[in-house]
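quick q for whoever's on today - can somebody do inverse folding on this one?? i tried earlier but teh output was garbage lol. tokens:
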């Protein structure tokens, strides 16, 4: 009997942007044709080098993120995807996503070429329908270009389009956020991501925070709850704190991160969780190129993940999703008593923050998602107390304590 291949996601980081947004702390650099060509060679070499380690896997998702991958252009994007297809077993129904900014995704013929090469999903950074709000955070596109890029994607026959929105932008009101949501839904994408603005230290917005008019926590919460309600009303189910989709169009690649599935990252600043090891590459483009093409030392940080770490991450990540946590899976995989969480989950349920699903699974409500960090910390505290109890029992020689 033929052994079924394990699923694997590939993340390919493209660290080039025309202009860095004022809220962004991702690793990205200004684009140049020569650097992008050399970087493409480095990615292809790394993909080939890594492939033998994934021989028992079938790649079912490939995600080109950034930066702005669409700035690489059709030729280089096709080259990278061809390297994936050459060196890996690609599942027949693989989800292959390209992140794009509207100003670089309006050529429908280019998008058609990419679709024919294998790309079948595009994620467009809309962020807002207000040109004023876009300018305030350093976005270089207009809403008209968002409309043009969606139209181009449809003309290219891409059947899986996602739009990104941000709420809590400078000077944004509930009314203007509602207008952005309405505009996004009118474009009829299959998927919508909706993120609250976070001021990351070191970004221009963080440095200017005292002079900006920003939504307070209450207004951001109201915007989030409104988005959940409005999108549900228009056929987009919330499947993760910040993500909404029409049935069957959930991002399969991003779900890997929240369900502890295996994925391998390529490029500076990328992360991987593969073979029980978590590792990442340093945010240094030249070091990555030298390491893959010229035998140089590529900065890598790695750690083995013991069961307790996986145990913690299962709670932390799964509670970001509407699938939530499953007592049967938890006890079978981690051999820990799920009952340690029940008193707290029942408290959350009474407060309207969590609810019990089918087969006694547990997940947060929309109201609970707003407080997810605090609520998850409560669950992790219960887990830490259980760990301490077991350590103390072992020290006493009480080996009859249930694992």
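ok took a stab at it. sequence:
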């Amino acid at each position: 009997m033929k052994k079924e291949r394990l699923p694997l996601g590939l993340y390919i980081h493209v660290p080039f942007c025309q202009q860095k947004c004022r809220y962004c702390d991702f690793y990205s650099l200004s684009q140049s044709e020569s650097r992008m060509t050399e970087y493409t060679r480095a990615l292809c070499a790394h993909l080939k080098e890594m492939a033998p380690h994934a021989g028992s896997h079938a790649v079912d998702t490939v995600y080109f993120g950034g930066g702005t991958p669409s700035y690489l252009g059709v030729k280089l994007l096709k080259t990278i995807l061809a390297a994936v297809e050459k060196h890996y077993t690609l599942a027949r129904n693989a989800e292959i996503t390209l992140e794009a900014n509207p100003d670089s995704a309006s050529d429908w013929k280019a998008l058609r070429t990419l679709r024919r090469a294998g790309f079948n999903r595009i994620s467009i950074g809309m962020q807002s329908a207000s040109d004023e709000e876009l300018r305030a955070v350093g976005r270089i596109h207009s809403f008209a270009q968002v409309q043009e890029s969606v139209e181009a994607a449809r003309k290219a026959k891409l059947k899986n389009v996602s739009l990104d929105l941000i709420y809590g932008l400078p000077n944004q009101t509930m009314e203007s956020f509602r207008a952005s949501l309405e505009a996004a839904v009118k474009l009829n994408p299959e998927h919508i991501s909706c993120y609250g603005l976070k001021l990351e230290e070191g970004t221009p917005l963080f440095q200017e925070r005292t002079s900006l008019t920003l939504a307070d926590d209450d207004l951001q919460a109201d915007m989030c709850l409104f988005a959940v309600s409005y999108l549900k009303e228009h056929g987009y189910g919330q499947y993760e704190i910040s993500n909404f989709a029409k049935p069957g169009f959930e991002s399969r690649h991003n779900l890997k991160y929240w369900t502890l599935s295996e994925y391998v990252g390529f490029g500076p600043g990328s992360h991987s969780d593969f073979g029980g090891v978590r590792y990442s590459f340093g945010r240094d483009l030249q070091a990555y190129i030298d390491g893959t093409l010229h035998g140089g030392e590529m900065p890598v940080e790695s750690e083995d993940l013991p069961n307790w770490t996986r145990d913690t991450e299962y709670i932390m990540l799964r509670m970001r999703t509407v699938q939530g946590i499953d007592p049967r899976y938890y006890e079978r995989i981690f051999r820990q008593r799920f009952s340690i969480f029940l008193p707290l989950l029942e408290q959350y349920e009474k407060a309207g923050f969590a609810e019990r699903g089918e087969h006694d699974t547990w997940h947060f409500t929309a109201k609970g998602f707003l407080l997810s960090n605090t609520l998850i910390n409560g669950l992790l505290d219960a887990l830490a107390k259980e760990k301490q109890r077991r350590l103390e029992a072992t020290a006493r020689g009480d080996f009859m304590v249930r694992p």
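fwiw Residues 130 and 157 are 27 Å apart (CA to CA). also The mean pLDDT is 92. so keep that in mind when u check it
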